[in-house]
User: Which sequence fits this backbone?
């Protein structure tokens, strides 16, 4: 569990509590700060695998940092912590390819599960906002699943289990290129757009349907 993490939150108790908790769980916390500008500089300099950011911070908000990372194609995956349940924040999180969005009231309960998902390249959003994501961005309609072939359904089922393309290829005895082609076809059929996280979110939120 050597996942490198930077944490930023302008609430001292939350910052210290989350840092101590994740350190105790064996995660590699390589930096922490209480403002967004410092957080972004840490991400650029230290290149952590994951950055856990409060949405509302001075200098730069968590969304500002996520936007900058997305614009500059930085490899760090962003997890946002927030008290905000306003839909406009969810929209921006999706737009900036944020990998995790956790309501602060559930942070300690959900953060490890979120990190596990994100490390595997699978987005994780608090269940409280899942219905909105499904309705607004991911088209959770039974008839959309009927558009998929048996092979595509197999791929989607494994994606919902947080399998990587390489792991799916090995399990199904096919090439990674074939897996990626299936993924591309599914994205087009379900009209999920070109965001790299959309298919993973859709698969996780709709796993009960297949």
Assistant:
């Amino acid at each position: 569990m050597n996942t490198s993490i930077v944490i930023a939150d302008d609430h001292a108790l939350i910052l210290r509590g989350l840092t101590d908790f994740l350190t105790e769980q064996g995660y590699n916390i390589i930096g922490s700060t209480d403002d967004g500008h410092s957080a972004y500089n840490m991400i650029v300099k230290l290149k952590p695998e994951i950055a856990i950011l409060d949405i509302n911070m001075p200098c730069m908000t968590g969304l500002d940092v996520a936007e900058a990372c997305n614009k500059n194609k930085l490899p760090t995956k962003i997890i946002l912590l927030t008290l905000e349940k306003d839909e406009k924040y969810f929209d921006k999180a999706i737009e900036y390819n944020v990998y995790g969005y956790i309501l602060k009231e559930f942070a300690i309960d959900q953060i490890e599960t979120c990190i596990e998902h994100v490390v595997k390249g699978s987005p994780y959003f608090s269940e409280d906002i899942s219905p909105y994501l499904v309705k607004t961005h991911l088209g959770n309609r039974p008839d959309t699943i009927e558009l998929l072939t048996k092979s595509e359904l197999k791929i989607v089922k494994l994606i919902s289990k947080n399998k990587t393309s390489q792991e799916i290829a090995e399990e199904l005895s096919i090439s990674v290129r074939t897996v990626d082609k299936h993924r591309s076809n599914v994205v087009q059929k379900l009209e999920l757009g070109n965001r790299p996280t959309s298919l993973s979110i859709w698969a996780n939120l709709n796993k009960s349907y297949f």
Observations:
- The mean pLDDT is 84.
- The radius of gyration is 17 Å.
- The longest strand covers residues 28-33.
- The first helix runs from residue 12 to 24.
